[in-house]
Amino acid sequence: MADDQLTELFADGTAPERDTAFAQRVDARIASARRDLRLLAFAIRTLVILTLAAAMLVTVRLLEPTLQQIAENSPQFMGVPVPLILVALAVGFAVRAMRFVRLRLR
Fold first, then answer.
1. Domain spans of the chain?
2. Residue 95 and residue 105: Cα distance in Å, rounded?
3. pLDDT digits over 28-41, tens only?
4. Could you report the per-residue pLDDT of 16-28, keeping only the tens digit for each?
């Protein structure tokens, strides 16, 4: 091959942005890295949720006698202890507030 032909070949056909096989490999690696990061983020969120659930379970088990005594001695509203109603309302308002704040931050 002549120098002109080699120069033309390298200038036109072998640039990485023009090589479709190279571009597909790069796209596949980027997609794989993004998928791995999404999976890692999901695993971390799951681990945090499970850790909080385990901590809550241990706390409730430790405080069960005290909570039972509070529930027995507290006034009731329609057969349900008032502290239980207040806790349920507080949790509901907290979840709603977190959703509202998250929407406002975006």
1. 1-73, 74-106
2. 15
3. 999 999 999 999 99
4. 666 777 778 888 9
